[in-house]
Amino acid sequence: MSGGLIRSEHEGFDQAMTTPTDPLVSELDVLRRERDRYVKSHAETYELFLEKVEDLSLIRRVSDALRNVIERHAMSRSILEIVAEEVAPQRVYLFLADRDSLFLVAQKDVHQDTAVQIYSGVSAQEVENDSLVTTVHVTEVAQLLPAIAPEARLKIGIRDSAEVGSLILLPLMGAECSLGVLLLTHTQRNFFEPKHERTLAIISNTIATSLKSILMFEEKIRVERALLHSDKLASLGRLVAGVAHEIGNPLGSLLGYAQILKRERETPEERREYVLAIEELAQRMRNILAELLNFSRPSPVKFDLVDLGDSVKKVIGFLAAQKTFRQIMISVDLPSGGERLQVWCAREQIEQVFLNILINAADAMPDGGVLSIVGRSHDDVVRLQFSDQGAGIPAEQLDRIFEPFFTTKAEGKGTGLGLAVAARIVEKCRGTIQVESEIGKGTTFYLSFPHGAAGQGAHGQLTGC
Ligand SMILES: Nc1ncnc2c1ncn2[C@@H]1O[C@H](COP(=O)(O)OP(=O)(O)OP(=O)(O)O)[C@@H](O)[C@H]1O
Ligand SMILES: [Mg+2]
């Protein structure tokens, strides 16, 4: 547009200057040369400007296409589609490095307009070690082979090299090394030119940046999974150690009694006493196994709309008469005036949760104190709060109290399954359980559940926990 304007001005200038005026001729020549130089450099600058605009818009197109891709296959697909659109080769291949090896991960036949083919894992497409693709990956230098004779069978890294008349290989450069290689082929010789190489260099830079962030993202997920797995293994180890400990101790005593009885030296009274002890120990082991079983494979229960206020009152009624609660003052603050704390859950199970939290609270206050329970319903959420004035839980134990078999109670007093089972039950009712504790001041457990039928869902109807 501005080019046309410049030309017409110059034509006028030429006409005026071509009338010879002797003293000015040489000066005119100088001016004319200067003008030509100016026009040429202006045209070159303009060319350069257009080129830059084109480069920028290319970068923009590529980054737009890759911006929201966060998965390797989707990324490979997008990369090949972009290259196909921008350069129109006959075929385009993407190779990615995984540890020390290079693999063909995607391919597109542009002329046949087939969808991008994705390869995953080690396959027959594995790149040979001494192919051109590997060389470009290792040396990190792009290669343009403009005219390949039909009879030349190159070891490129793809099968049908005889069909290739020209090709371009580009390393995808990460910060320190090549992440992979892009290969574009055409059956026609001299199809690829240096201008393609330039376009591809721009594309491959943008691709490499996106690829790098995807690879980092994948690595982060892999590390997180590995950590989670090792954490699970550690919990399993602790669980097994807990079972061994809980069952092992009574079992040892039981065997001891059996040995004594075998000697047949005891009086009938002593024998009776030992048999009763054996019975008690066996009963204890049976209870532990039942709790453990309930933890790992809870029996089917009926879900229903349960008023948590009623359940709390029922559990308190049952506990208040117990010896442990004699010195405890229980304060209950529940909504009045017909407001109900309805939650979709299994009644007996939620009562088991309250029972355990309340017994724990009483255990933490052997010399008495206040145990307060507050229940409210706001914004579709039912919340319950159980606070005691007990010894509190040390910070380093807070993370462990929901672990199966974590207990600080004396031998035979607690199995450490109470809160583990409670957490599981609450989770199945789509609720949450949290704890806050201060040494010497007390502990508060916060429970929250979706209000009413809002909690009905995956675990709803007649399902087991
Ligand atoms: N209110 C509380 N105050 C202080 N410590 C608590 C309280 N609640 C739980 N704990 C700590 O958490 C541990 C685990 O509690 P959990 O209910 O799972 O097992 P437990 O009470 O030891 O045994 P179980 O409930 O199986 O008989 C307890 O041993 C105790 O150390
Ligand atoms: Mg307990």
Describe this structure in words.
α8 packs antiparallel against α10 (418-428). This protein is an alpha+beta fold. The radius of gyration is 40 Å and the shape is elongated. The chain has a six-stranded antiparallel beta sheet, sandwiched between helices. A five-stranded mixed beta sheet has the order 8-10-11-13-12. A two-stranded antiparallel ribbon has the order 7-9. The protein is built from ten helices and 13 strands. The protein has four domains: 2-64; 69-223, GAF domain (Beta-Lactamase, 2-Layer Sandwich); 240-296, Orthogonal Bundle (Helix Hairpins); 304-455, Histidine kinase-like ATPase, C-terminal domain (Heat Shock Protein 90). The longest helix has 69 residues, at 194-262. The structure holds adenosine-5'-triphosphate (ATP) and magnesium ion. Adenosine-5'-triphosphate binds at residues 356, 360-361, 364, 388, 390-391, 393, 401, 406-409, 414-420, 443. Residues 356, 359-360, 414, 418 line the site of magnesium ion.
